[in-house]
Structure formats: structure tokens, C-alpha cells
Design a protein that fits this description.
alpha+beta; Actin, Chain A, domain 4; 6-stranded mixed beta sheet; 5-stranded mixed beta sheet; 10 helices; about 30% helix
Length: about 425
Amino acid sequence: MPEPTKKPSMPIIGIDLGTSTSAIAVLVDGRPELLQDPQGDRIIPSVVQLMSDENFLVGAAAKNSSITYHDRTAQEVKRLMGTKEQVKLGNRIFRPQEIAAQILGYLKRSAEAKLGEGTVRDIVLTVPARFENDAREATKAAAEMVGLKVLRLINEPTAAALSYGLDRLSENQKILVFDFGGGTLDVSVLEMFEGVLEVKTSVGDDKLGGKDVDDILIKIFRDKYIAQHEGGKLPPPSRDRKLAQTLKEGAENYKKQLSFVPSVPVDMPYLTHEGGISFDLTREMLDEHLEEMLMRAMGLVNEALSRARLRWEEIDVVLPIGGSSRLLLFRRALEAQWGKPIREYDNPDEAVAKGAAIAAGIERQAFEDTHKDIMILDVAPHRLGVSAIRQVGPGQFIDGYFSEIIPKDTKLPATQRRRYGA
């Protein structure tokens, strides 16, 4: 069991800012606990709505009214972090980090409703392992906009492994984390030994997530509409955002149901003035459309093992996290490769936030006795370097040549020097 924590002056907080959902956790007596929002939700939709009075609505209330107020609602903004994309809500324009700040502010207020006003300040915040530096800086900026101080950004798979490993720190285990969230798929390989959690490698795809599964389901819906209405087509999202939101919510709902049952009746009768669609959606039907995604996902898994120089038989634990990891097609593929059944250690939606709270406890030296020396050894998720001019011949130069300084998977912190001459 975890050791008691010291009593710091401020609560020890970890936040999982997710593409589809977010969560906030606090460390209490060495154990991370998720906090509820005013609606009683611990897993909170990452949805922001600009109301007519110019105030913001966040969470389930915003999601539940997103069809009615589709032009004032923002979702999946995490995919835009670090870009120059803009988000239009009503007649106003926002940067992605400004929308993310509304989610973080809501989480902060929800936590302070239980912990006390002004008590939530220093936090550990999670990000996808694949996040580029611009996206990481934008995420920190969003936190700072609502008065949060980010002690550390920790990669989501590392946080999940930390949540799993807190009760097993004395064990020597090799862990594969399959983080299949709403916006990205990250695969990390870690080793746990003598109180140390060492990341070996992380690979990922920021265009492979639950949203992409939703898009496949939406295509199935659109194809069914054509078949059931003699070639009539549904208007594209750009022409009918309300319809697009209806299809999206339907996709999310039926996707979740197919994680538990082999088929589900789809009944969406009022898509247009001509009617809607009605058919039985089977897990087999969805799986056929997911084959290409499955190949990409398993390719990442094998790449991670190769980079970590490990074989499947050397992996002790497979941790699927993120809502999309419940899709049986992917889980069964992992089990087939590993040759073992996957155990359910924690709620896959909660593991990242809990791990973030544990990481916050480490940062603030809150653990006592056997847990006081817990260490997280991370690696560079990308290769780092500078743009340079390279001479390729007498009087011949290549502009914009990438000169690598720190290779991917270099242990952090890392220092390298390279001299460039004229």
C-alpha cells in the first residue's frame, strides 16, 4: 500500500486534459482520487459553449446542448493545440489555448468547490507523448491563463504506468502502454524497477484516435442514408453543422455500446425533411471498416517494441488506456500478439489523471518512507535539432537542412553541444 503523504500547504493536483474528456485528481494519503464537477461527473466532456450572455458553459451541460447550439460549441480543441488554427464560437474568434483554458478553469473551480477556494494552483498536467513543443507550450499557456502553475508536463502513457505501478514499485516489470484516446494513439514501453519508472520509448499517431473511429461510423450512416433514400445524400458538415453534430453524437453513442454488445439498433429518424436511417449496426460491420486503423495501430506497437529492443514475450504488463481502448478489435489484436489475456487494472478513463496526481506528489516531495525516492526517467519523444545551411559541394549549399542534436529516445535531461562554422 502507498505510504502516507506529508501534509503540504496546498492540495496535490494532477489534471488530464483530454481530447474528448478531461479529469482532475487529488492525492489524499498517498492515494489519487478523482474529483467531481458540480454535475457529479468525474469524467468531464472536453466541450465548451459560448452562451448568449458571453459566459462559457463547460462539460456535460455544454455537450448536452451542443446540437441546439452547434455554432457556439467547441469540441476536440486539443487536436488544434500549438497550431495557428482559430475556433469560431458565435461571432467571436478564439485561439485553441483559450478554449482549453476554459476547460482547465472549470476543472479548477470544480476542485476548489471541495478543497477550498484558491487552493488549486500547482499542478502536473498531462499531454500526449507525440505532442510537439509548440503544443506543449500552448497547453502550459492555457493553464497559466486560469492561474495554474504547471510544475511538470508528463506524457499520458507515463502517467498511466505510474498509476498502475504505485503499489508495485518493488517489482521489476516491463510495461507496454496502449493509449488510445479521443485524438491520438500513443504506444510507450516502460520498465519499472526499485522505485524507478523508466521510459524506453514512445511512438504515436496524432491522426489516429476515437474521433477517427467516429468519422468512420459517420460515413457508415451517410452511406446508409443514400441506400435508404434512393440515392439522396446528406448535406456536408460545412452546410449543416446541426446535422453534423447529430451524426457525431450518434457515432459516439453507438461506438460505446458496441464495446459491450455485438450489435445495436441504429434509429435516427429525423436527419432531414426526407427522414433518417434505421438499421442494425454490428460490431463485425464496424470492424471491417477499422482494418486499416488496426494495421496502423499494431504497426506502432511493433515499432515501439523494436525501438525498446524487446520482444513480446519480455512484456509483463499491457495497459490499454483511453476510451477507444475499449474497442474489442484492438484489444483482441493486442492479446493475440502478446499471447495472454489483458487484465483490467484500473478504469482506462481515470488512469492518466491519477498518475498525474502521483507525479505531482513526486514533484512536491510529498511521499514519505519507501515512496520518497520514486523517480520518473523520461526520454525525448522527438529528435531535436536546428535548421542549418549545409555545404554539399564547391559553392553549393542546401538551405533549411535539419541538423539533429539530440536523437529521439535520448534520456532526459540531456545536454549536447555542436559547433557550426561559417
